[in-house]
Amino acid sequence: MKRSMAAAAGVFLLALSLLPTPAFPVLYIDINAPGGKRMPIAVADVVVAAGDPSLSRGIPKMLSDDLSLTDLFDLVPPTAHIETVTAAHFSGKPLSFPGWKMIGAEAVVIGTVSARANQLSVEMRLYDATQGTLLVQKRYTGTPAQLRAIVHRFANEIVYAFTGVRGVFGTEIAFTARAGKSKGKELYLVGMDGQGLRKVTDNRSFNLFPRWSPDGQWLAYTSYRTGTPNVYLRNVSSGSEKEVIRFGGSKAPGGFSPDGVWLYAGVSQAGNSDIYRVRVVGGSVEKVVEGWGLEVSPSPSPDGRRVAFVSDRGGSPQVYVKTIGVAGETRISSGTGYATSPSWSPAGDRIAYTAKSGGRFVIATVAPDGSGTREVASASDGDCEDPSFAPDGRSLVYTYRKRGYSALKIISSDGRRQRTLVSGLGDAGSPVWSPGR
Question: Which of 208, 286, 344, 396 has its CA 20 to 30 A from that of 377?
Fold first, then answer.
């Protein structure tokens, strides 16, 4: 069951498609061609049938901000628009597509909104300005507090219409940071657009290593709030919790199996840390990786057949991959330095990790067989750590640190484009991207 911002608010948000869903979208943009064609798109002022007039520009502004976070679109500035969209355009009057083409737009978004009492009704349309055809038509209802979620949904529709890949608008990043002058660390959530920052835990202890369940409903994390480290599952919507791993000494969750049945974790016993998986319901335990070295940071593959983990069995921490139930593991990180924090891409074709290079920590990715290592993120004045892939695999979130400063950054998986997601919190780190919604 997918968690949604609507569910988090306890209010149902309805999305109604007014067009038959095509079996396959028209692929205008090759999402696998970095630096390739960008779609020139105009987002017209929205018609306000009833309610706050500021929505006329506010909704297009939110939608344009979403689309500008990708490298897929060129936004035609509103000052260039020469046609005013009116209510008549939603009752049969055609748009002047030659006019939109004249200002360079190959796609046009129009919309209308009606706000009465505590209810919004929003209709959004996406047109191909070259063909003069309607590509997507959606109607949404919800509360004013759900407006941003509505806009995120339509932004995802636009991305899908042009690329065939679902967008990631509306997803969130969980991470840890100090709250004020507290010595502990709390869990936080923030939207992938940098909006909606909020604290999840508030127990003034150390709450570490958040990991999302596959349905986005739960966060697994380690907390020291009882004086000893235990792993908990926290329902993100309700705040309810249950303890899931108590055995052993130090322990840290690494990730869920794709079906959500198992939670993988590194757990130390008798001074040695190995990789275990624990049934979320029932609590039965299986040891997955063991050895004389330190085995930590398990990351299950998207198909659940393999697990990446970190071991110092070779003298320094390195990333290995093991097929579940098959003897032997393969080291996939190169060099003699330091490699940790593996994170699988959603397609299962790359593993991101933290590596040491030139005295600094950098973000690298590698194929699961150890081939094709490439550096994605680095900084001359600081360290880049703890990568986590977006649900579409096109971006990663990571921690940037330098003396007395930390921030979360999002970078495209080819390293060409990045932005700061969160700054200003103390010792921010361990970011992990939520599943798609």
Answer: 208
Round to whole Å and give the CA distance between 310 and 338. 10
Give the strand pairing for 39-43 and 107-116. parallel
Helix%, strand%, coil% for the chain, nearest 5: 10, 45, 45
> What is the chain's alpha carbon radius of gyration, rounded to the nearest angstrom?
23
Identify the CA nearest to 296 among candidates 272, 314, 332. Answer: 272
3-state secondary structure at position 117: coil
Q: Is 152 helix (H, G, I), strand (E, B) or coil?
A: helix
Cα–Cα separations (whole angstroms), residue 4 to 12, 157, 269, 277: 9, 16, 38, 28
Question: Considering only CA atoms, which of 345, 376, 340 is closest in space to residue 356?
Answer: 340
Q: What is the pLDDT of residue 291?
A: 85
Mean per-residue pLDDT for 94-108? 96
List, in order, residues 6 or more apart from 143 with CB less than 8 Å away.
Answer: 9, 11, 13, 118, 119, 120
At residue 11, the 3 state secondary structure works out as: coil
The 10s digit of each residue's pLDDT in 119-145 is: 999 999 999 999 999 999 999 999 999
Check if the beta carbon of residue 431 is closer than 8 Å to that of residue 173: yes
- CA pair distance 331, 314, nearest whole angstrom: 10
The SS3 of residue 101 is helix
363 touches 375 (CB < 8 A): yes
Read out DSSP for 364-433?
EEE-TTS---EEEE--TTSEEEEEEE-TTSSEEEEEEEETTEEEEEEEETTSS-EEEEEESSEEEEEEEE
Residue 193 CA, chain-centre distance (Å), reads: 10
Strand residues in 117-197 grouped as ranges (E): 119-128, 133-142, 172-178, 186-191
Rounded Cα distance between 196 and 236, Å, is 14
- Sign of the dihedral defined by the CA atoms of residues 72, 341, 197, 346, in that order: positive
Residues 6+ apart with CB under 8 A from 233: 213, 218, 219, 220, 241, 242, 244, 263, 280
* pTM strictly above 0.85: yes
